[in-house]
Amino acid sequence: MRICGIISEYNPFHLGHEEHIRKAREKTGADIIICAMSGNFTQRGEPAIFDKWIRTRCALLCGADAVIELPLLTAVQSAEGFASGGVSVIDAAGADFLCFGSETDDKELLESIAAGLSEETAGFKKLLKESLGSGDSFPKARMKAAFPDAPEAACPNAILGIEYIKAIKRSGSSLKPFAVKRVGGAYHSEDMDSPFPSATAIRKAFREGKSSGAFGAMPAGCAQTIERALSEGLRPVFPGVFDRELLYAIRRGGPGYLRALHDVSEGLENRIYKAAETANGRGELIKAVKTKRYAYTRISRVLLYALLGITKEMVAEHNARGTAFLRVLGVRGERVLSILSRVSKAPLICGSAASSGYPGTDIAASDIYALSQDSPPFRNLKRDLTEKLIVV
Amino acid sequence: MRICGIISEYNPFHLGHEEHIRKAREKTGADIIICAMSGNFTQRGEPAIFDKWIRTRCALLCGADAVIELPLLTAVQSAEGFASGGVSVIDAAGADFLCFGSETDDKELLESIAAGLSEETAGFKKLLKESLGSGDSFPKARMKAAFPDAPEAACPNAILGIEYIKAIKRSGSSLKPFAVKRVGGAYHSEDMDSPFPSATAIRKAFREGKSSGAFGAMPAGCAQTIERALSEGLRPVFPGVFDRELLYAIRRGGPGYLRALHDVSEGLENRIYKAAETANGRGELIKAVKTKRYAYTRISRVLLYALLGITKEMVAEHNARGTAFLRVLGVRGERVLSILSRVSKAPLICGSAASSGYPGTDIAASDIYALSQDSPPFRNLKRDLTEKLIVV
Q1: Fewer Cβ in 10 A, N or C end of chain B?
Q2: Of the CATH numbers 1.10.10, 3.30.1370, 3.40.50, 3.90.1070, which one belongs to the domain with range A3-105+180-238+323-391?
Q3: CB spacing of A364 vs B254 below 8 angstroms
């Protein structure tokens, strides 16, 4: 029995994701594909366009054999923490391979960069300092320092891939990393005419009311699932939907509250608090706070921490704890569940059965997410405790 | 120089308030009437219909000589804390009299009840227990036990008056309490046909878009002030305007957050948290949580504590501190300010001059209140630090 893990967001699931799963299965010869997927909030610091139960169903209908939720505090960390938590989940699930999409599938290149980044040699440190001095952002400077001749390795998915490789090494896991070359639109591309439009492009199409275009970029089972949910009252969720709650949280908490948040240091709390005096929401806040030093995504994530109350202390504790259980959101066929329960190294929590394993932070995040919805069941609370395991 | 103090909310200011100030001046022979007024949130646990600067201007145009703000943590406590904090402010301002409206102006009756309540004799305790046993609410049982033959003393304003008398006694203040018989609509009356419609009736008229009726119940200077502000983009504020922020605060914080709030004990946090699973806002929450034991206004206040993050600890500290300064919102003529500065026992803070004296909680409350507004200056932040002293 060969098991291949994929760390994902599926925000939303599209043709490129289906293709990635197909290739992962083919190239690793896996019998089972396990996807560790973000819940209702994503690594870019945004709410997912559809909730985790709908995104789970889409993935299961289009190639995944099991979907396991990434804990909230893993899902919303920057690349290193995200990768490290994701690898821990895939490893705990008992997988043999970790397969990721990447702008390059040159494994040796990726591994040598990962080694370079892990080691932080004197040469690396010198180049990093020079590059930062010339005005590069930290992630860019780091890539240039580690491998100045491989610009393709500085692309978003490859960076994440390198983080996966580093995390596997660091944790002593026996997972075999495996890069699959990405097809179609680049990660941030908004192009809908590509044969594989990106998730960014699809979210934009939904935001502009062009849902038929969006459905065309998804496998049929996924499009049908979302179409049905929309007809039942589901609302696609866009980043600005919690603007008032965010402003309220900042106004109520003040700089002291912001200072305690994860990844806030060196006066960033004051920049944000000051910007909140005139900014009308998340978008304006990011624009006002952003500098070369504070990248868009970092601010976006910090604002999510402000919305959800995620502190330095919570993240440090979470990272120290490791993967204590696996939260199975859904499986393709009940046989998969029995395989999972045999191979996994951590207890499985399925659906409504075991409320005790869900952290309060994750439950609260789902409850806050539900503020974006008008109709049951989407606006229901405590869905983490009541939704059943999805079996397709 | 005789100075008379009035503890008020003016939410909004109306003909009955003007009449009360007129009588207070006449009966006490006061040269100066100082009103200690709630800021943007009131004792019923609701946002004020108009902000404190507009309500200050109204009061000054219609009889008050000075308006001093009640600190937030005084303004939103139950009768005893509200009265005690209010008396402390009026006393610190150097007033000779404290004049309050009451359903009865029988001073001896009020004072003997106050004495009875303060003493809590064995007879009082026995009657209180019996009355509670027969199913009466606590405030009602307390009044019945203290003075079973005086139903008029159990009316809302008289209860508050008795609390003022108790607070004066307790604090050893030399303030002379003075009851003025209320005219017109009862405190909670929604009747707009009375010659003196209540603030409740006026707020209802605004809510129903019948603003001309509302203006008719106000002195001309007050109606003109509000009319002009509305034409400049001011929005009247109604209790449900922060429903989403409230639900968000409860969902984010959970029972642990609620348990730490002022006046929450014995599992009330769980009742509220449970009710928040289905309730769509403040109104539905109060309805679901209310019992004979937990009165409407108490729940309403606790929900305000949840919105503003007001904990037991904060209130205890505030009450222990006493009145360290007086925040003067406005005066009628600059002469009043110089008189105030001569007679007051605490330093005056006027307008934007002294930011250091404003507690962060009060500033945050004003900033949260501003979420209800769309147009500057009403939606501006840090108005506590930037608005100038109002002089009419």
Answers
A1: N
A2: 3.40.50
A3: yes
